[in-house]
Design goal:
It contains 13 helices and 16 strands. The chain has about 400 residues and is α/β, with parallel strands linked by helices. The chain folds into two domains: about 110 residues, Urease, subunit C, domain 1 (Roll); about 290 residues, Metal-dependent hydrolases (TIM Barrel, Alpha-Beta Barrel). Strands 5, 6, 7, 8, 9, 10, 11, 12 and 13 form a nine-stranded parallel sheet that branches. The chain has a seven-stranded mixed sheet with strand order 3-2-1-4-14-15-16. It is globular. The structure holds zinc ion. Zinc ion binds next to strand 5.
Length: about 400
């Protein structure tokens, strides 16, 4: 493959979990970044230019592929939103062709919004999950995808037996091992929809296959109360811990209604709390106290949670993260920290060193962004100006493994 020279202002990780900007050139060859030259912008390049932002593709740590066409079902609380809108939508994945078409469409939306890597849920349907994973693989995106495990408290069409679910999950885990570009994630939806034996089986399967685990935790107060009823008074976090679902490869979405002990359990097990601020405000679930979790030593990630989350753009999700923290009077991240979160930060949280950073040897998953605002001459912090003034139309090109997979002329 021929060499590509991409020039502009490079979004670069600097020490301490923040990003900065440095002018330079990224050289891409054979799917990877082979060189980075700083402080020079050549007169001619294959893409970019002096005013362009060159950044790693964004990483979304939590989304649902079958929910891309139910975004905007406003006015419902979590449990009603699930039963009235979400479960009927997920039933359509009974047809694997429908699932493949929808995944392709969803992936195109992600790529157009600058997201090149994600951890996502499919549905309880095995063939549909396989079709979705195949589709994501064909697009070259970096992803973890899971067949959702549910055996109770959902529409009957979406419940399967424990043994069938664990068998099907094991076969997908073998087909998509953890070191692959697309990997399988063990995905019990949440404790309400899983019996104890299913949760325990899921934990054992993840340990055996060294697989990523994704689930939901403490999104709403009624949900936490229901878990306590279903598990004889046991705490939500304790249920997961006993089932060996809290590991350094566990991504737990929401983590809003947490006691100090709960946060310590996440910290002790090195589990990751995936903050989904847009979805949380949409469903009126509450606000995660991000800085409190961080002070407890809990590792964090950030997700869109489409379709309760209505923002596809991880830049706007990052902005919501800042605004949520400010609204509850907590310490809020700077724009430089927020840019780091949706790139290198989420890469670390998901254990994906090959994406999320512009560095030699990394997969050439990157964006050429041409803002139409004076971001380089402003008196405002340029990264804050970009984040708060963000417009998806600035994305000229999204590259995955050195190949252009979205272009806006
Ligand atoms: Zn979710």
């Amino acid at each position: 493959m021929s060499k590509l020279i991409i020039a502009g202002q490079l979004l670069k990780e600097i020490a301490g979990g923040v990003c900065g900007i440095v002018p330079g050139v990224v050289v891409v060859q054979d799917e990877v970044i082979t060189d980075i030259i700083e402080q020079v912008i050549p007169a001619s390049a294959d893409a970019g230019g002096e005013q362009a932002l060159i950044c790693p593709g964004f990483i979304d740590a939590h989304l649902h592929l079958p929910q891309f066409d139910i975004v905007g079902a406003h006015g419902l609380r979590l449990m009603n939103w699930l039963s009235e809108v979400t479960f009927p939508a997920e039933e359509r994945w009974n047809d694997p062709c429908f699932a493949a078409d929808m995944t392709r469409w969803a992936a195109q939306q992600l790529l157009a919004s600058g997201t090149t890597a994600f951890a996502g849920y499919a549905t309880v349907h095995h063939d549909a999950t396989r079709a979705a994973m195949k589709c994501v693989e064909s697009l070259g995106m970096k992803a973890a995808v899971g067949q959702v495990l549910m055996n109770r408290n959902a529409n009957p069409a979406l419940c399967r037996s424990t043994s069938q679910l664990l068998q099907e999950a094991a076969s997908l885990a073998d087909a998509y091992p953890p070191d692959g570009r697309v990997e399988f994630a063990v995905t019990p939806r949440f404790a309400i929809a899983c019996t104890d034996d299913l949760l325990v089986g899921a934990g054992a399967l993840a340990a055996e296959k060294r697989a990523l685990i994704q689930t939901h935790l403490a999104e709403t107060i009624p949900e936490c109360q229901r878990v306590s009823e279903l598990f004889d008074g046991e705490g939500y976090v304790d249920v997961y811990r006993r089932a060996r679902l809290l590991t350094k490869k566990s991504v737990l979405a929401h983590c809003i209604h947490m006691q100090a002990d709960d946060m310590h359990a996440l910290s002790e097990t090195n589990s990751v709390a995936a903050h989904c601020p847009v979805a949380n405000s949409f469903l009126g679930a509450g606000s995660m106290n991000r800085s409190q979790l961080q002070d407890c030593g809990v590792r964090l990630a950030l997700g869109s949670d489409i379709g309760a989350g209505y923002e596809r753009s991880m830049v706007r999700v990052a902005r919501a993260m800042i605004e949520t923290a400010a609204a509850i009077g907590a310490d809020f991240p700077t724009a430089a920290e927020a840019w780091h979160r949706i790139t290198a930060g989420n890469s670390d949280a998901l254990g994906w060193p090959e994406v999320g950073r512009l560095r030699v040897g990394a997969s050439a998953d990157l964006l050429v962004v041409e803002p139409d605002i004076p971001w380089l001459t402003t008196r405002v912090d340029p990264l804050a100006m970009l984040m708060f003034g963000w417009d998806d139309r600035w994305i000229r090109q999204t590259m995955v493994r050195g190949k252009s997979c979205f272009r806006r002329e």
